[in-house]
Structures are given as structure tokens and as C-alpha cells.
Amino acid sequence: MESDEEIRRVPELGLELPGGASTSGREVGSAERAQASAAQAGGRRRVRSPADKEHKRLKRLLRNRVSAQQARERKKAYLTDLEVKVKDLEKKNSEMEEKFSTLQNENQMLRQILKNTTVSRRGPGSTASGEGQ
After folding, report:
1. Helix, strand or coil, per DSSP, at residue 59
2. Residue 73 and residue 50: Cα distance in Å, rounded?
3. What is the dihedral sign for C-alpha 106, 107, 112, 114?
4. Which of 17, 19, 62, 106 is most solvent-facing, going by the fewest CB within 10 Å?
5. pLDDT tens, 45-101?
6. CA dist 23 to 12, 19, 70, 84, 105, Å?
7. 3-state secondary structure 87-131
8. From CA 129, how far away is CA 21, in angstroms rounded?
9. GO molecular-function annotation terms (predicted)?
10. What pTM does this model have?
């Protein structure tokens, strides 16, 4: 795995070209100027040298590498946030289950008390319609 410093480092582009020119200290000669002005006058696109293409490719690769690293960091932060939310929701769910159980037991006890109170008021021999035997 590459470190952040290695990812953001721009590679040296001191590639030697035929004729002694280099991409790092590129000198534009009169022949190149003439070719560029002729290309502009004719409306044609300038032909890129292999070194220019390689430079552009390396810049694109570097941007992609940095972008991929940032995406991985965003994903990691998102997953960390989701994990925190999961723990919070699990805790809340556990508390609610406990409260539910307590209320269920309380409800059952109150129903039992109500049943016992109703039976004792009517007397042991009474029926639900209120008639005695």
C-alpha cells in the first residue's frame, strides 16, 4: 500500500528525447514555433510528441491515484459512521426490548389483580351475568 506522500508525489519527467531535448527543461526551437503557427493557421491540431503524451498520461494517472485514495478515505469514514449508528441503534433496541418486557410483566400483573378483584367483589359463586346460584 502506498503512503499519502508517495501517492501525491509528482514523478520526474526528465525524459530524454531524440536530438538532445528533454521534457523537464523543454526548449521551443524555431522549427517547433513555425510548426505550431502553421498548425494554427491551417486549423489543424498540433501533433503531440510522445513525451507530451507520456506527460499527460502520467498526470492523469496521478490524478486518478489521488482521486482513488480520497474515495477510499470517504468510504472508510462512511463505514465508520455506519458502524457507530449500528451500535447506537442496537443499544436503543436493547433498551426498548427491556422496557417492553417490563411493561408486559406489569400489564400481566395488573390483569391478574383486576381479575382477582372482580371475582372477590362478586363473590365466589357469582357468574359473569351477575346472577347468583
Report:
1. helix
2. 34
3. positive
4. 19
5. 778 899 999 999 999 999 999 999 999 999 999 999 999 999 999 999 999 999 999
6. 10, 12, 29, 50, 82
7. HHHHHHHHHHHHHHHHHHHHHHHHHHHHHHHHHHHHCCCCCCCCC
8. 112
9. DNA binding; DNA-binding transcription factor activity, RNA polymerase II-specific
10. 0.47
